[in-house]
Design goal:
Layout: H1 9-18, E1 28-31, E2 36-38, E3 52-55, H2 58-63, E4 67-68, H3 81-96, H4 103-110, H5 114-125, H6 129-147, H7 152-158, H8 164-175, H9 179-189
Parallel strand pairs: 2-4
Antiparallel strand pairs: 1-2, 1-3
Helix pairs in contact: 3-4, 3-5, 3-6, 6-8
Amino acid sequence: MVVQTKFSFHEMLKIANSCDGSYDGLFFYAVKTTGIFCRPSCKSRTPNKENITFFQTVEEAKEAGFRPCKRCQPDRLDFNPIMEIINDTKAYIKGHYTEKLTLKQIAQNIGISPYHLGRIFKKHTSRTPRSYLENIRVDKAVQLLKNTDLTIMEICYEVGFQSYSSFYYAFQKQTQKSPQQYRNKLIFDL
């Protein structure tokens, strides 16, 4: 089936290969060998030219027997690929905050480059993935200071910091108190 749009086959192919999100909704592409259709912004592997076909609507692609991609979810109107990446990144960090995490490791698990992840995360959250991770760790440390008798050093490693100095710096930056001052204030307030 040939799509009747203002774009030629080669233009749509180029757009799909570049994963350009500004064309989402204008057309969809399907891969004959997988039976899946995607948005132009989908980050899935680039299909061979002979295996690709284009559609103007989701309905046309479904009627032709293709199913929606689980990655770019072309059948969802409210889907925002950038926010999906941000939400996936936040969920990954929350689930692994006690581990030694690097931007490269986080990006690899999300499926994009570290540079791209760092750039879009900062643009949409006004913080880096590292500062987001540190905030989660400090929040968990505050909970442990309130609810356990663990030493400050034990809390430091329990929440995923690799050194006491980085824990102390991040904690003081977020709470304006050292971990010991915070714990002392809790005792004094009782």
